[in-house]
User: What shape does this take?
Amino acid sequence: MPQTSFYRKPKAESRKPKIMIVAGEPSGDLHASHVARRLTALRPDITLFGMGGDQMEEASVTLDFHIRDSAVMGFADVITVLPMFLRKQAHLKRRIREERPDILLLVDFAEFNMPLAKFAQKHGVPVVYYIPPKAWAWRAKRAQKLAKWANFVAAIFPFEAEFYRNAGANAEFVGHPLVDFAQTPLSTQAARKHLNLKGSGLETLPTSDENTPVIGLMPGSRRSEIRHIFPIMLRTAANIAQIYPNAEWILPLAPGISHELIAKCQQEQNQPGIQIPHIKIVEDGTYPAMRASTLLLVTSGTATLEAACIGTPMIIVFRTASLNWHIVRSLTPLERSGLPNLIAGRDIVPELLQTELTPTALTNLSLDFLQNPQKRETQREALQKVHAQLGTAGAAERTAELVFSTIRQA
Assistant: This one.
């Protein structure tokens, strides 16, 4: 689906434009940084400030707050950091009122950013919301609220843009940012050689996959996800290793997750009678690791869409604190969790969620995929169709153009 180009070169201005950008998690920091670089390219004299992480800082955004302690998961986690969140919100609201930025660019992080959108609208500061709240998944009334508070919604899914337009928002599909960078030029065999995997020297991948499959573990990017999900993955690895003793295991380390945390989980699961196989930790190589894998065990979230872009068969898993789960299930009408399934509108990737996620269930499902190449190929073909629905490259550029277009119209 084609995207619209919004940008016209602004007229010369005596005052440097000021843009406040707020992101609260590593993924939002990454996506915001790409937009920030494009904004600077279009207007080198621009002033960028707000909240974000290392990526935004490297993109010349002056940070009032760093996101190191902002990435949380679920309602129970939010409660523990609520006082800190409220202090940060109050500070950023003061900045909006006193600095009067030309625009407020919000990136994902709905629980924190929605009140800022309301505040900015009240004080006459235009708002562009990039990667808006998933109101189509749950809390649908948010779409109506954001339609009142945001001048423009930059949606990353075609159906998302339509959903927000139906709620009264000025929304456009700008494309999904993953299309730009969730890719690798390496073939499966080249990726395995790049990662120095033992089976990389085998000449025929189908044969090597049958005997020495490469299984990628992606337990998440938050400590709470590691705590709830990674132990189940480790027990699953121990089970599969009994059937595939030559299997190789890799774990692309997510930003913010330490080697020490991974090692601690492994030590806790290395109990008598349970032999956890060696797991190769991969740093700064998520996409080669995905490409190298025969099968991925992936925590529900952005990583599932990255895997879809790479085209690697996967199983989606999710588990959280019981309180979080009950609240989410009471609020969302969706039958599916994984983004590839939501985009496809059907179950193309198996999901094991909450109580369904056990070592036995994950082992059996993994073995089914490892032992059936045709099942993997069928899913791979379906993932290619999902990838095609994410639009063309250039989401950050289109969002930056949209920002300047909104400034002109304000």
